[in-house]
Amino acid sequence: MKKKLLILTNNPVAKIGISSYLSSIFNQYLTIQSARGADITPEILDHADCILLSTENIKDNLPYPIPEHVYQLVCMRTFNHTYLHKILQIPPGSSVYLINDTENNADEVILQLQEFGFSQYHFLPWYPGCTNPDESIHYGVTPGELHLVPSTLTTVIDIGNRVVDISTINEIIACFHLPTSLADEVTRNYMSHIVQVLKLSNQQLSHALDMKQITQMILDNVSEGFCLLDESGMIKMVNQPFRKLTGFKEKNLSGCDFCALLRSYGIDYDFPNTRETIISQPGHGRIRLWFQKFSLNPKAELYLMHASVCEEQASGSSGTAFPFRARPLYDFNNMITRNPTQSHLLDTARRISLNDFPFIIQGESGTEKEMLAQAIHRNSRRHDGPFISLNFSSLNPSGIEAELLGTEENASLGTRRHMGAFQAACRGTLLINGIQHTALQTQQLLLNVLQNGYYMPIGSSGPLSLDVRMIATTTTDLYSLVLEGRFLDDLFFLLNTFSLNTVPIRQRRDDIPLLLNNFLRDAFKDPSLVMEDVLTGNLTAFLKQYDWPGNAQEIHNLSNYFSCIYQREPIPLGDLPGYILNQILSRQTSLDVTEKHILSLIISHPRIGRSTVMEQLRKQGVSLTEGKIRTVLRKLADAGYIKVHRTRGGCEATELGILMSRG
Questions:
Q1: pTM of the model
Q2: Contact assessment for residue 142 and residue 98, using Cβ atoms and an 8 Å cutoff
Q3: Domain interval for residue 573
Q4: If you average pLDDT over every residue of the chain, what do you get?
Q5: Which of the pair, 168 or 315, is modelled with greater confidence?
Q6: Which one of 79, 91, 195, 574 has the fewest beta carbons within 10 angstroms of its own beta carbon?
């Protein structure tokens, strides 16, 4: 029987965060239970082998004393380093509210921030019970407590919920006499975060930590081989396992050109164009090298090179058919942008890819949420594993349980063997598209599986261990569904370790020409094509100003449409799909009968002048003065329906004018 670890806390966010994080590490060895201090009973306390207190003072308010035979630990928590750099957006010297659920917790986070070197800010605690915020303070920082933020603040930095510190992980391992290798994965995640902080030293920081020493110490205390390279391929730091696995004999590799080093050993590796390779050194066997790419600012990229003993893929890991999409995956190189907001999103996504926590991608339809999830998977340590995508909006609610859990052959239940998404995504990533469509029963199923770390296929006699990185996408604000009682708060906080909000096209207009050209090249299968080659100037100008309600997916669809209707002549505005034409016509200036009549004359008689217009109208029984005709022509020109040429050039209808004549 597994020994029991009991987590005691009064904060629901901390309850979910701590228990889910520790379950992901110790699920195979321990039974992990979490409870609010006010809800415990003597039986719960007595049956625990170890109690983890979220704070030191929580036991002072327990309704029952903790038995003497139960071992006690106080949970040490630290920042999620992925988000710490955001604080540097705040001008130095500013007064900043630190928002948390209690005064003690707010003070604790302030102290940790100061210890991390953020002493250029004057932090003030803000917690429930505080009244009348100082309206001269415009900045706030919170560890995941956005709902407590005072409305007077204009800029709020969410640094995410704090995670369990590595020291507490090691204390739990020692308490239960567990394998020390359990700390390796946690250490790797910490290392990934600290590597990022290494480059964030800023002139704003008056008390910077020596992150290089800390990072090197961590690197040397994990079993996997790591080598950190800068954007030019120069080695910044390398750990002993990397040296041992690769057989490199040089005493000091820092500052060496990585590719030149490989060539000196007779090894060819097209870095960074090739993501991974197999090398072989005499006496060291076959070693697999692969890297993760991430950036610390728009102008600097880093590569974290991994080295591990090459193992053949397990038999049966490929070629198995299951009802999920299987096509080539996107990576970050496929996500093009010149927009600063989108660039920041991609930079954050690269950072998130370095750890293994679940997270949510929120955004409008067509904003490449699945493409972003695929890129994160490709840049993660799970990139060799499968990427499985389930669209909850298209699944029959009664069949979702079987799609997730799978079924086993069971005559009494009448079930046949069917591989579920959890098993299909084993050692990889499971993407749940449209999680806002999930029924409460399915939400409870997901919550149980994620909390327990195992699942039971329908008809099976035993559980299977869950080894999946979970990503969820939504087009609506999930927290608003939580407040409405339509989404489980425990599941929301468990999934929302991180969140990414995609950027709609109308907010990144500088990317419209870039995306149009890219999708048109794919559609026409011509890498040198630009939109001016196949679209008229009027159509090109319109598309640059169009709001694109369907976002990137609409640009992709329209590019394919253009490739189908193109007939060697530039495509005019009037050949747009009907739903877009209707939008154009609904926004245009309305014309009366006379104005439409004159516009029709100009369309049928290009370069027609005012006198000829008057003559043609007279022949049709319409009498207008030259002044009235001049007024109509000015109105048509101002609306963009005609061009009035100088020096007897006459009038000519534009594409928009031709379109209006049809309406």
A1: 0.56
A2: yes
A3: 505-586
A4: 83
A5: 168
A6: 91
